[in-house]
Design brief:
There is one protein chain. About 40% of the residues are buried. Helix 2 crosses helix 3 (about 40-50), helix 3 (about 40-50) crosses helix 4 and helix 11 (about 240-250) packs across helix 14 (about 305-315). The chain has about 325 residues and is an alpha/beta fold. The chain folds into two domains: about 5-95, Helicase, Ruva Protein, domain 3, CATH 1.10.8; about 105-315, Rossmann fold (3-Layer(aba) Sandwich), CATH 3.40.50.150. The strands form two sheets. The chain has a seven-stranded mixed sheet. Strands 1-2 form a two-stranded antiparallel sheet. It is elongated and about 70 Å long. The chain has helices at about 5-10, 15-30, 40-50, 70-85, 90-95, 115-120, 145-155, 165-180, 215-220, 220-225, 240-250, 265-275, 295-300, 305-315, and strands at about 95-100, 100-105, 135-140, 160-165, 185-190, 200-205, 255-260, 280, 290-295. Strand 3 (about 135-140), helix 7 (about 145-155) and strand 4 (about 160-165) form a beta-alpha-beta unit. It is built from 14 helices and nine strands.
């Protein structure tokens, strides 16, 4: 954007509505990718403008005609141009993302929260479990800690363990645990999946692990490459991490417990790898798919299949 164009924008556009419309046009023309909390150029523009002005995302429409100061206009233009130039998810530029109605601190050390699991958690996993009986929850691959923290809000009497192999991710999660005041409920654990959990067992194991195949990761837009690869890519078919979760979960679930895992675009590969396993695929009112549920009983019935799947994976040439 030239200095002349910038001067024209700041000198001509005046209201919140003007800048949302202008930013939306700029994003669309630049061919940005959306998928980190917003679905369209307009939604992204509205999120950027309102956050920059320290206004709520549901600001009443009557205020969209409010005139902005020259300083406010300049800040918005700077952020719009930064989003276009750097091709980073907007949440990284803002330092914040929303999940299940809660705001979380995020940066390049963690994925941007966007999982449909938020809806399931807010519904307290009904009808799959009796929420009044939940005393313990394990969040594998916790990242920013958003799943664990949301679970702590909906199950205030439960103990929540949040596991991640990345110490950098756990540092962000720690900030969010403190931000939401759930230090007594959520324990952060540095561990490669179940390795550091000893004999602990849980009523719910929930995970949004890495599930993108190598080829798919290479083809992702720049916005996704700004996120930590460790949180996205998981081998040739995207199932390296999921295989290990399936093999290990039975050792850490209570008899009436459930395992819930998001596998996104790798759902077909998972069903092809385990054709005899009765995965329950969950539906979401507000969008999203690729999330399966298995009971402790189902995991036990297919334990041999899951364990042999990990052994076959480990025995591949080059492993």
């Amino acid at each position: 954007m030239t200095n002349e164009s910038r001067t024209t924008v700041v000198g001509t556009l005046a209201t919140i509505r003007d800048y949302i419309r202008w930013a939306s046009s700029r994003f669309a023309a630049a061919g940005l990718c959306f998928g980190h909390g917003t679905a369209t150029a307009f939604d992204e523009a509205a999120a950027l403008v309102l956050h920059t002005l320290h206004q709520p995302h549901d600001l009443p429409a009557i205020y969209l005609g409010a005139a902005l100061t020259p300083e406010e206009r300049a800040r918005i233009v700077d952020r719009v141009e930064q989003r276009i130039a750097e091709r980073k998810p907007l949440a990284y530029l803002l330092g914040e993302a929303w999940f299940g109605g809660l705001a979380f601190r995020v940066d390049e050390r963690v994925l941007v929260p966007r999982s449909p699991l938020a809806e399931l958690i807010l519904n307290r996993f009904v009808p799959w479990i009796d929420p009044e009986q939940i005393q313990s929850v394990l969040d594998l691959c916790t990242g920013s800690g958003c799943i664990a923290i949301l679970c702590a809000h909906v199950f205030p009497e439960a103990a929540i363990d949040a596991v991640d192999v990345s110490q950098e991710a756990l540092a962000v999660a720690r900030e969010n645990v403190q931000r939401h005041g759930v230090e007594d409920a959520v324990e952060l654990i540095g561990s490669d999946l179940f390795a550091g959990l000893g004999a602990a067992r849980y009523d719910i194991i929930v995970s949004n692990p890495p599930y993108v195949s190598c080829g798919e990761w290479e083809a992702l837009p720049a916005e996704y490459h700004a996120e930590p690869r460790l949180g996205l890519e998981s081998g040739e078919d995207g199932l390296d991490c999921v295989r290990r979760i399936l093999a290990g979960a039975i050792h850490h679930l209570n008899p009436e417990g459930v395992l819930v895992v998001e596998v996104g675009s790798s759902a077909e590969a998972l069903m092809a790898a385990y054709p005899a396993v009765p995965f329950t695929w969950l539906d979401f009112e507000h969008g999203g798919d690729g999330v399966f549920l298995l009971t402790a009983r189902e995991l036990a019935e297919h334990r041999g299949v899951f364990e042999s799947g990990v052994r076959r994976f480990d025995d591949r040439p080059g492993q």
